[in-house]
UniProtKB/TrEMBL annotation:
Cofactor or coenzyme needed: a divalent metal cation
Transmembrane segments: none
Record Gene3D superfamilies: 3.90.950.10
Classification via NCBIfam families: maf
Protein name: Uncharacterized protein
Family annotation (CDD domains): Maf
InterPro entries: ITPase-like_fam (IPR029001), Maf-like (IPR003697)
GO molecular function: nucleoside triphosphate diphosphatase activity
One Pfam family it belongs to: Maf
Alphabetized UniProt keyword annotations: Hydrolase
């Protein structure tokens, strides 16, 4: 996020509506001044009612709306709120954050033994005043094949828990990701290039 966009944003109250440490680190790398607020939005949308892009965008929108409600009566109301949601898909099915060891094993087994690439969708919603902008970034991830022992060893590191699709591409999983097509940051959870371009467009229009 280069000047003059950064200078302009740093005069505003900017909120990242996410508790994800990975997203926070990506955004911090730009030197943007922002605050982090966790959303209490109940992520209970029914996947069958949405396309993948619609699903992540609507979930991100719910996070933005929730955080706005938390902060709308503050003395300094946020000028920009950024909400994000990431989902991993494989062969037409969504994979969120595994909640048990068994679920993590099942997810990683599917991702690393079928020979089919997984596709990461990240929906981003930006609220700037009364204006709302939504977009989805898509990245395709090709993984090498893992043995059963390798899958169990990876799951037992604890890395899959709390991550969409059960893997962290910036962590141990990088050792079995063969290649990607698209934005690497998107797989971590925040498509920084597209976010920057959208902010530039919104602030200059």
């Amino acid at each position: 996020m280069l000047k003059p966009l950064l200078d302009k944003l740093n005069t505003m109250r900017v909120i990242l509506a996410s508790s994800s440490p990975q997203r926070r680190l990506i955004l911090e790398s730009t030197k943007l001044k922002f605050e982090v607020y966790s959303s209490n939005f109940e992520e209970n949308l029914r996947p069958e009612n949405y396309t993948f892009s619609e699903f992540v965008e609507e979930t991100a929108f719910g996070k933005v709306q929730d955080v706005y409600e938390q902060l709308k009566n503050d003395e300094m109301v946020p000028e920009i709120i950024i909400g994000v949601d990431t989902m991993v898909t494989l062969d037409g099915k969504m994979y969120g954050k595994p909640t048990t060891r068994e679920e993590a094993i099942d997810t990683i087994t599917k991702l690393t033994t079928t020979g089919i690439p997984n596709v990461v969708y990240t929906g981003v919603v930006i609220k700037y005043g009364e204006r709302i902008e939504k977009f989805t970034a898509v990245t395709t991830v090709y993984m090498g094949r893992l043995s059963k022992d390798e899958i169990l060893a990876y799951v037992d590191t604890g890395e899959p828990m709390g991550k969409a699709g059960g893997y962290g591409i910036q962590g141990i999983a990088s050792s079995f990701v063969e290649r990607i097509e698209g934005d690497f940051n998107n797989v971590i959870g925040l498509p920084l290039y597209q976010l920057t371009q959208k902010l530039k467009e919104m602030l200059n229009s």
